[in-house]
Amino acid sequence: MPKLNELLTTRERRFVTRLSLVGGILALILIFFFFFWGHRLNQVRSEAVKLTGELNKIVQQNEQYRLDFKRWQQTKVDLEEIKKKALYYGGDGLEAFRQDLKNIIQQAGLQLPPVSYQYEETEKKHFRRLAASFGLNFSYPVFKRFLYQLETWPRLLLLDQINFQEIDNVSGAFQLRITISGYYYEAE
Question: Residue 1 pLDDT > 60, yes or no?
């Protein structure tokens, strides 16, 4: 029985040889490209995973910055509210501070003593300190009522200093020198 290539002519044999050679080369090229592209695909995948991780970090940072920005906006609103409600404002603020101090002392059931006022006058600050110093004679329950009035007052008033000048051990009465501070705000 004759072999298959014996049935072919010389020209057909050359054609089949060239065709198989081209097919082999194409197969090698395909194998090379599959390995190359497979390796390249792995590199692209790992780079995509890396970039996705970086993108997630950037998204988280962006979200954190947005939250921080919202907090700062809320802080700004809170500061404006403090300026309006807790601080005294401008020239009228000085008189309001005096009136508030008078009301606190009277609501505690005390007589208004002579008060020495001090004002911080600096050109660089927008918030300025007001201080009022005065002496009082009272018992411990009246002192507690006075402190309660001071702490619950709607505006920001601070008890800066208390000097116990005289304490009567028999009656429990004492004499104090007190300094109370408030703050006023001047517009720019």
Answer: no
Place of tokens 């008189």: 95
Those residues whose C-beta lies under 8 Å from the C-beta of residue 147, and which sit 6 or more positions away, are: 159
- Give the Å distances, CA to CA, from 122 to 35, 105, 181, 184, 186: 78, 29, 16, 13, 11
What pLDDT does 5 receive?
64
Residue 79 CA: distances (Å) to CA of 14, 69, 72, 188 = 93, 15, 10, 15
Give whole-number Cα distances, 96 to 89, 113, 114, 116, 117, in Å: 9, 18, 17, 16, 13
Return the residue matching tokens 């097919």. 23
Predicted confidence at residue 102, as pLDDT, reads 92
- Which residues fall within 8 angstroms of residue 14, CB to CB, at 6 or more apart? none
CATH assignment, 88-185: 3.30.70.60
96: left (phi over 0), alpha (psi -120 to 50) or beta: alpha
**Alpha-carbon dihedral angle through residues 11, 12, 18, 23, given to the nearest 10 degrees:** 170
Show me where the domains of the chain are located: 4-82, 88-185
The predicted pLDDT at position 80 comes to 86
